[in-house]
Amino acid sequence: MPFPPADPRLQPPSPRRGAYRWGVTDVLTLAVDCGGSGIKAAVLDTAGTAHAQPVRVPTPYPLTPELLVDVIAKLATDLPGAQRVTVGMPGMIRSGVVVHTPHYITRSGPRSRVDPTLATAWTNFDMQAAVADRLGMPALVLNDAEVHGAGVVAASGLELVLTLGTGLGSAHFHGGRLAPHLEWSRAPIRRSLTYDEYIGEPERRRLGDGLWSRRVVNVVVGLRPVFHWDRLYLGGGNSRNITPSALARLGDDVVVVPNSAGLVGGARAWDLPPQ
Predict the structure, then answer these.
(1) Going by DSSP bridges, is the β-strand pair 139-143/84-89 parallel, antiparallel, or unpaired?
(2) Which of 20, 61, 73, 270 sits 20 to 30 Å CA-CA off 85?
(3) A Pfam family name for this chain (predicted)?
(4) Dist CA 158 CA 174 (whole Å)
């Protein structure tokens, strides 16, 4: 099914930002949250209200850049029309270009072997341009934790966002302004274990929620003197699995937020101050 041409009143971003609302009562955003195990999409207005039930498909592997663009386009056909699209995906994304992505370069998903051909295909792939061209509308592509953060930050002080899912995602904001992305989730935390491996989904399944939640507390305690945040938000699909006893140890400056922020942030990311 071909996509209609973009509304001429909505010019492509340069390369991002701004509410393209002149002559338009409200802008609908196709928000796509790409994870290691699933890809979700919804259409939201500028207030973050969904205009249909979100749709979800399992993340297909092996996953080429072109296949991910195809999946996004297919999800769009199952939702109401939109005037712009936001994509959040794991890894280091700069100006919509993939510098590195951890899961999509593997042969069969997280923790499987890296496929050198996929690694080459993803490196320096301009995902933002590819999505905009395929869907015929302005596109914004960010790290998935950055999109998640756009949905929850209060634009007050230093705010850190950690997403707990297949691995560990992170983003930080100062005064509501998105800071340059750091892939410290790939750094070692214990012996040869990275943060991703230490509190990712495979370890939660192996340890159970109780022991895994202790690891989450250890990560928060270890990062507190590094960031001295004003507020830490814990999101992602596994944030709901943190035990009450672990939550009580985290402190009043730590807030658990719903995983739906990954979609709500797709609408709000367009209004973030430029970096």
Answers:
(1) parallel
(2) 61
(3) ROK
(4) 4
